[in-house]
Amino acid sequence: MKRSVKNILLSMLGFSAAPILTACYGMPEPEPDQYWNKDFKGKVTNTDGAPIEGVKVYVGTREWHYPDYDIRPLEGYAPVMTDAKGEFNIHIGTVPHKTYFVAEDVDEAAGGGWFATTEEWLVNFDGTIEMQEHPQSGTNENESNNSDNEGTTNE
Amino acid sequence: MSKAPKIGLRKRLALNLFADIKKDLAKQHELREIFWECTLRCNLNCGHCGSDCRSSATVPDMPAEDFLRAIDQITPHVNPNRVMVVITGGEALCRNDLESVGRELYKRGYPWGIVTNGMLLTRERMESLVRAGLRSITLSLDGFEEVHNAIRRHPHSWRNAVRALDAIVATEGIAYDVVTCVGPHNYASLPELRDWLIGRGCKAWRLFTIFPVGRAADNDELQLSSEEYRGLMEFIIATRKEGKIKCDYACEGFLGGYEAEVRDRFFGCMAGVSICGIKIDGAISACTSIRAGFDQGNIYTDNIWEVWNTRFEPYRNREWARKGECKDCKVWKFCQGNGMHLYDNDHHLLHCNYKRIQN
Fold first, then answer.
1. Which residues pair with A60 in a beta bridge?
2. Could you give the C-alpha distances from B300 to B52, B67, B72, B214, B310, in angstroms and in order?
3. Span B72-87, average pLDDT
4. Neighbours of B61 (CB within 10 A)
5. B194 reaches A (C-beta below 8 A)
6. Any chain B CB within 8 A of the CB of A18?
7. B280 touches chain A (CB under 8 A)
8. What spatial distance separates the first Cα and last Cα of chain A, rounded to whole Å?
């Protein structure tokens, strides 16, 4: 019987075909997030689903790897701007830390005032992107605009 | 105390399929994990330690360049992104060049991590390790202050382990778990410890029992009774059902009806099948807790990649273990003689988890 068939049968029985990955004196297996080497596509829209052009998106990482530290641009990655469809495309190679996509409205008037402050997306290993609340949101005087102008992204 | 659950029909069918998959994996022999016993120095002197390390090791640390030379023999033949390097000891953090070794591994594309007692793990050291590419970490914590300090034989071991736990939990982007060696000394306090870990923000907890090797071989008082052992299994099941923390029993051995109940996956010892290891003296083995009688070569005299491909037969074909109490065992096909770390130097099984559950 082929391995794939055995895997399917095991799955149908409700069990995993993979062995235990963590050896007795070992650690849990991490997601290989530093080895993406792939393109990530995102789309910035407002709550009505309309695309927002001209939002600056950059790859960021925290100065230290704790939530109370700010996210800074990651060296070696140039920021990109969303196009008329609100879309952006960033190639991620090897990154040494947990990585965020950070979007900033560089021109609030032209951008429609969507961003009152910096927003962040956590990039998952499978390439999907989910929005993250900025830890410092609420400190900006335009923070109240956020509830009316949430961003969404799609791969 | 309830009896051990029997292996039901559905699980038995699945175990049969999985036994075939394990054969496939042994044939495939894909390297997925490399242990490195980087030092035998340790800043603790734990009563239950499975290692033979000492606080002031007479054995010198392995030079980083020797280890990296062995890694470089492997690298052209694997996808490093899929091969995890586990740095262990002794206490790995006793070395002050871990970050530079880590960066070298990272440059080559290997994810890496450490197993630590937390004595030296401050928030600053944690950040330094993460910047050097650390992606996973396991912290030992054996109970609350009195119990932990007693078994670790150090008055500050608990305080420092808690400091380490807080640093680990707060760090973004790493995999981690806390491991607890369960024995009579901490068995009764496990529910309280679980709740404390949850309150501390810990997301993953792995429970061991103490097996009779290393220093623990001389101390029967560290062993759970069979009833307590089953109680531990029931505790893990209840904790998993509660769902507030990811709780697993370690990969120790075959557990009969508890298989896939106390761990996500079925037991299968992957030592020498997908796990290779380099011991402090250069010996090529699998998990570093496996006795020297199973060493397969030495990086100072052999090419490790050749050894991986041409030796390791005792790990990949376990028929030699079908003797003694295993000879006529009805679950042999599923268990294959338990974990390799549970054999002595003469290839005799020291401990049967299945029998312990059945007693």
1. A73, A100
2. 22, 10, 14, 25, 17
3. 94
4. 20
5. no
6. yes
7. no
8. 37
Kindly give the pairing relationship between strand A71-73 and strand A119-123. unpaired
**pTM of the full structure:** 0.82
Number of C-beta neighbours around residue B137 at 10 A: 28
Give the tens place of pLDDT for each residue, B287-310.
Answer: 988 999 999 999 999 999 999 999
Report the residue of chain B nearest A16, measured CA to CA. Answer: B265
B283 and B292 Cβ atoms separated by less than 8 Å: yes
Range 124-143 of B in CB contact (< 8 A) with A? 126-127, 130-131, 133, 135-138
- Assigned token pair, B190: 């496990």
Write the residue in A22, A28, A33 that is nearest to B173 by C-beta. Answer: A33
According to the model, what pLDDT value does residue B306 have? 98
User: How far is A41 from chain B, CA to nearest CA, in Å?
Assistant: 21
Q: Does B268 touch chain A (CB under 8 A)?
A: yes
End-to-end CA distance of chain B: 12
Say if B106 is an interface residue toward chain A (CB within 8 Å). yes
CA distance B295 to B302: 12
Does residue B223 surpass a pLDDT of 80? yes
The residues that bridge with A59 in the sheet, in sequence order, are A101
Give the tens place of pLDDT for each residue, B132-146: 889 899 999 999 999
- Torsion angle, alpha carbons of B121, B250, B350, B347, to 10: -90
ipTM of the complex as predicted: 0.77
Query: Which residue in B7, B12, B16, B18 has the most chain A C-beta atoms within 10 A of its own C-beta, making it the best mutation to test that interface?
Result: B18
Query: Could you state, in chain order, the average pLDDT of each consecutive group of 10 residues for chain A (155 residues)?
Result: 83 82 74 64 72 81 79 83 85 71 61 39 44 34 26 30
Q: How buried is B54 (Cβ within 10 angstroms: 0-12 exposed, 13-18 middle, 19+ buried)?
A: middle
Residue from B93, B121, B135 to probe the interface with A (highest A Cβ count within 10 Å): B135
For residue B260, pLDDT over 70 is answered with yes
Return the beta strands (E) in B184-279 as ranges.
204-209, 246-249, 275-278
